[in-house]
Design a protein that fits this description.
The structure holds two protein chains of two kinds.
Chain A (H helix, E strand, L loop, with lengths): L1 H31 L6 H19 L7 H31 L8 H22 L4 E2 L8 E4 L2 E4 H23 L1 H11 L1 H6 L4 H27 L1 E2 L3 H16 L4 H21 L5 H15 L14
Helix pairs in contact in A: 1-5, 1-8, 1-9, 1-10, 2-3, 2-4, 2-8, 2-9, 3-8, 5-6, 5-8, 6-8, 9-10, 9-11, 10-11
Chain B lengths: L1 H26 L2 H7 L2 E8 L6 H21 L6 E8 L1 E2 L2 E2 L1 H13 L3 E5 L4 H14 L2 E4 L10 H7 L9 E3 L4 H14 L4 E6 L3 H16 L3 E7 L8 H8 L5 E5 L6 H8 L9 E3 L7 H4 L6 E5 L11 H11 L7 H21 L7 H9 L4 E3 L2 E3 L11 E8 L2 E9 L4
The chains are: A mainly alpha, B alpha/beta.
């Protein structure tokens, strides 16, 4: 029971990172029907931006009090903002002109953008794993015999707070309504006076900013980053988005947490070498038996 | 998607090579062609960038030093000796495909008479069939997987020319290293060990042998897990391991395939005080784990060069040349290059100062007998393995390795 809880908590922590990345996949798919394969690399970019900002602030070790709040806050918001800008640029330069092209064209472009980002990051920070400063003090709290670290609280807390903010934004603001309208019917939305280009750019801004948050969170959690991390994490987050029902926000979050838990439990019960097999077997099962995903049918409205 | 990347990279390499060829043929005159025939080269194939770069470059420097020294001393027949180093890392990780393509370019360059490298066993497995077919002598400084020289696997690597062996190594094998690690672990007082490996040629062999021998010596193996690729989360595995309350964790693999992150994450699940044991693959553990590497032990498939009187001149020359301490396999690479150089020199002498063929150099490498190197006298057995191999054990203190002991292993 004790180990079950420990694995569950670990799976939820891991899953919250997948969920944040999956949101970006699902938002972009919802609005322009594109699987943005460069999204995993935007996530890595987020950890690199956080690392660079912490470097500028001179934060190399554990921080306390106001320094922790200020430095971590700047790194978090800086990474989110820079990733958001990167996402907007990617959309403007690589995808916008292909918006009405056959679906394969932007898909291949997305893979190309992924290569460009990976290689740019390899040039930037080198091809080896880069240590990320352990800025967060890490006392553990014992709940029902299971040690939960402060890092895990922060990782999961930040992820859930970000997701709630996103839900409020999409369902409670004019821009959010424009996004939902564009996702439902782009032409009709345009006829109603919605600026499609602006709305799509905002979608990329928000989706990529969420990947930036995920990048910061993973850096703090693993104290290590690598230019190639986005490949594996991106594929798993994509699986999470499909499992939850691609295009569906709540589905992406649910899928992210489920994939994290599945990975954790597969490692525990089947052995480490089966964890990827379990995750991608779920992708195949979802595609075969429930292509619309777990929440795909109950919430027809996309974004 | 991975394979697409390597394809595109290979295409780029081909295009670049074609460009270089064009440039060379454009510039070559009659005079330079005559000069070119008096140049002999030793190819070096190692991971010079990426996650393995820290060990790859210090290994390369060992080989380069031997070649520079030989060139300074002068070769018989007035030959010029050059090193031709190539990087086998692709996307930051040692790559069998890249290694194979490097070795093909050595084969196509007639001036290359021997190859030193690679660093990793799975890369060697991709290269040996090519050097075997070409009859080009290849000397590995650090590749320890048994199947490269022994048994069915090795016979399969030599299928192009089964009667010929072109691959030699100056380090010992996985199974001898795994067996020695099991003995070390028992000597350090560990009774219950959890075994992890990275599912690669080197790591799996090492872990299997350790697992087998540790049980035979009366130890308990609590479990044996293999890692998945492309992940950075090892916490669920470690939570599972923590529940078994091990005396130590054994890792078969290298720092870049998970060794470094596992050591770090052990501290997150309350396993920070548990010792971490591995082979030569985690000699650079501190590059990822920093001071958290303390409490880890590793072996090198080589004697401690710093304690061999014969190695003193090498250590002095190395630090004078590179202004840094030697890496885990610098001395081995120096020895491997020495083997190649000595064989080339003997072949030139036997030819009366004419250009030797690859077959002659290969025969001379195989005939290497008691060559004095910084890792002790080198002779090869029929399989291409070093006779009288030595294993040494190290631990970490303040993020730097310190020597504990070494043992001579009886040769097969």
């Amino acid at each position: 029971m004790h180990e079950f809880l420990a694995q569950l908590i670990n799976g939820i922590s891991l899953g919250s990172i997948y969920a944040l990345i999956a949101l970006g996949y699902t938002m972009v798919y919802g609005i322009i029907g594109l699987i943005n394969f460069a999204h995993g690399d935007v996530y890595t970019l987020g950890s690199f931006f956080s690392l660079a900002i912490l470097g500028l602030l001179g934060a190399t070790g554990e921080l306390h009090g106001p320094a922790l709040v200020i430095d971590a806050g700047l790194a978090l918001f800086g990474a989110a903002l820079l990733c958001g800008i990167a996402g907007v640029l990617i959309e403007r330069l690589a995808y916008r002109r292909l918006r009405n092209a056959p679906r394969l064209a932007p898909l291949i472009t997305a893979i190309g953008v992924s290569f460009i980002l990976e290689n740019a990051m390899q040039v930037w920070k080198g091809p080896s794993p880069v240590p990320f400063p352990a800025i967060l003090p890490n006392p553990a709290v014992t709940v029902a015999g299971v040690a939960i670290s402060l890092q895990q609280f922060v990782v999961v807390g930040l992820a859930i707070a970000t997701m709630l903010a996103l839900q409020l934004f999409v369902h409670g603001t004019r821009v959010g309504r424009a996004m939902r309208a564009t996702a439902q019917d782009r032409d009709a939305a345009q006829l109603m006076g919605i600026d499609i280009n602006k709305t799509i750019a905002i979608t990329f801004l928000i989706g990529s900013a969420l990947a930036g948050v995920a990048g910061f969170v993973s850096g703090v959690y693993y104290q290590s980053t690598w230019f190639f991390n986005g490949f594996g994490a991106g594929l798993k987050a994509f699986t999470a988005a499909v499992l939850g029902g691609i295009g569906n926000l709540a589905g992406a979050m649910l899928g992210g947490f489920l994939i994290g838990i599945v990975e954790s439990f597969a490692t525990w019960l089947l052995g480490g070498q089966w964890s990827n097999v379990a995750v991608f077997a779920i992708l195949i099962l979802a595609l075969v038996f429930r292509p619309s995903g777990l929440l795909g049918e109950t919430l027809p409205e996309k974004v | 998607m991975r394979s697409m990347k390597s394809v595109s990279r290979n295409l780029l390499a081909v295009a670049a090579a074609a460009g270089l060829l064009a440039a060379c043929s454009g510039g070559s005159s009659g005079a330079s062609r005559v000069a070119a025939s008096r140049i002999v080269k030793i190819g070096i194939d190692l991971p010079l960038s990426g996650a393995d770069a820290s060990v790859g470059i210090s290994t390369e420097q060992g080989a380069l030093l031997a070649i520079e020294q030989a060139q300074k001393k002068g070769l018989p027949g007035g030959f010029t000796l050059r090193a031709d180093p190539l990087d086998d890392s692709l996307q930051g990780v040692h790559s069998p495909q890249q290694g194979a393509s490097n070795v093909r370019s050595f084969v196509s360059d007639a001036a290359v008479l021997a190859v030193v490298g690679p660093y990793n066993s799975n890369v060697a497995a991709a290269e040996i069939p090519i050097t075997n077919a070409a009859g080009l002598a290849q000397i590995g400084p650090s590749v320890v997987s048994d199947g490269l020289t022994l048994g069915k696997a090795a016979a399969n690597l030599r299928r192009a020319n089964p009667a010929r062996n072109a691959f030699f190594r100056v380090c010992t094998t996985d199974s001898l290293q795994g067996a020695a690690l099991a003995r070390f672990a028992r000597k350090l007082g560990f009774g219950r060990i959890y075994v992890i490996d990275d599912n690669e040629t080197y790591g799996l062999d090492l872990a299997n042998r350790f697992d087998h021998d540790f049980r035979r010596l009366g130890g308990t193996v609590l479990g044996h897990d293999h890692l998945a690729q492309d992940t950075q989360d090892f916490k669920s595995l470690l939570i599972k391991i923590a529940a078994t309350k091990p005396d130590a964790i054994f890792f078969g693999g290298v720092t870049s395939t998970g060794g470094g992150l596992i050591r770090k994450q052990m501290f997150d699940v309350g396993l920070g005080r548990v010792p971490f044991i591995g082979g030569d693959g985690i000699a650079d553990l501190a590059t990822v784990a920093g001071k958290l590497a303390d409490g880890a032990y590793f072996t090198l498939a080589a004697p401690n060069a710093e304690r061999l009187p014969a190695a003193r001149a090498f250590l002095k020359a190395y630090t004078a040349r590179y202004h840094e301490p030697i890496g885990p396999y610098s001395a081995n690479a120096y020895a491997a290059a020495q083997v190649a150089i000595a064989a080339i020199e003997r072949a030139i002498a036997a030819e009366g100062g004419a250009v030797p063929t690859r077959a002659q150099v290969l025969a001379q490498v195989a005939a290497t007998h008691n060559l004095q190197t910084p890792i002790g006298p080198v002779s090869f057995d029929a399989a291409g393995d070093i006779q009288n191999p030595v294993i040494s054990l190290y631990g970490f203190k303040n993020g730097t390795p310190y020597f504990i002991s070494q043992s001579n292993l009886t040769t097969k």
